[in-house]
Amino acid sequence: MARATNTIDENAKANVIETDYEIGQDNIQMNVGPFGLDIHNPVFLISGLAVIFLVLFCLIFPEAAGWAFGELRPLLTTQFDWVFAISMNIFVLFCVFLVISPLGKIKIGGPKAEPEYSYISWFAMLFAAGMGIGLVFYGVLEPMFHTLNAPLGGANLVDENGVMLEGQAAVEAVKLGMAGTIFHWGLHPWAGYAVVALALGIFCYNKGLPLTIRSAFYPILGDRIWGWPGHVIDSVAALATLAGLATSLGYGATQAAAGLNLLFGVEATTNLQVLIIIGVTAVAMVSVYRGLDGGVKQLSELNMGLAALLFLFVFIAGATGDIIMTFLRGIGAYVTNLPALSNWVGRDDTGYFHGWTTFYWAWWIAWSPFVGMFIARVSKGRSVREFVICVLFIPTLVCVMWMSVFGGTAISQLVNTGYDGVQQTITNWTPELSLFAMLEQLPLTTLTSTVGIILVLVFFITSSDSGSLVVDTICAGGKIDAPMPQRLFWCSFEGLIAIALLIGGGLASLQALAIAIGFPFAILCVIMCYCIYKGLKTEVVDH
Fold first, then answer.
1. Which of 96, 140, 302, 308 is the most exposed place for a label (fewest CB within 10 A)?
2. Total count of domains within the chain
3. What are phi and psi for residue 229, nearest 5 degrees?
């Protein structure tokens, strides 16, 4: 039987899978100087060499890397958009099925398992790990962009001659823009997270298999998951995690650099972005050293507190009435346009669909092994129904509120006062400045912009910290107590990937990498839905 006494509740009646595999049996234990290693063979080697090759390629041949990644993104987003769209729709439908199904009664960890974290701590870690830098980067940018460049062929708030819509026409443009924003940050992406997290939670805490992606495929592969099929799955998951994190770290670095330039006049060069990544990675390594409870948990709670303060300030200091109406109308428009946005009936706005939706789905899917494993590690003791509802609807609600407050304030500034600062960041395509342009029109600009920079940096740290824990777990064969030097290795290389890709093509290269790795993992996640169903069907439910 798989030896997973560190994850199985001894009093639970979980239907543990019988297998001859012993956690860590394929691992290589060795000492490198004073440092000990306990790495899974060959996953660590494949992932590590792939990362080193990528970093060296981008640093030695930056022009070739920029060209290659520049060609890769449009190829995948135009030719394989249907793969991402269908996959995300399947995740949502599967999660809805689990909520209404009797299978929802099953507990992660067995009938007698109890939650290890309070709701507040749990939500804080969901918030910090699952949304991270992207929410700060896109919170102002995306509602404004989609209002000015409407999805589904809708009317833009401002036409090509600079004339703004008025009355009900303007209201409809804002509603459609918010619907597109909510679509990208709502149920679909969080359903992808829920699928991966639930698969890991069930097959680790209930079935006794290692806490690694390959374990989720036991229902169809059986003991072959311990061979090359499993090695390939885990290697893809590790690379997807690194790609998704590198993209987010790149966004964080560009936004922090832009904020420093705005507040202190520091030139926002690539060198500054590199220095920011190095500094934050160093702090993240300290957090990694402190562990999950001493590092990630405390930083996540700090992050939630800072985000809540900035959120409340903008809500109160901004156009509160317009924000509330933006929130309510946005949700209504999202529900109304969900079938069209989901491509259930076909979409004609292919440029928008490929440029935004397809990229987003690939980016979220690339993040899913990282966020999914992290959520699984902190969700033991929750029922499947409680887990799915909380992971889907609580973060979705937070995202809608955040986008409504920050984006709604920027839109109100444009419509009601004629301030076009945020609009100009879109026209000139300097998206890293959108948040600060909005804050310029509110009181205490310097203070709030400083808080915004700190928020980006702390999100930066928590993402790098928790991501390194996840990659290390995958590359250590499911061990959650692998030697510290391995975690520090992955933490440092996350920063190196972000630096290398910024030098070798900027954010476009980061986005292309996320899409490239997200593509194969999307197919794996669809198969994972079937494996979850098979795994839950074999569980003993204690009534």
1. 308
2. 1
3. -55, -40
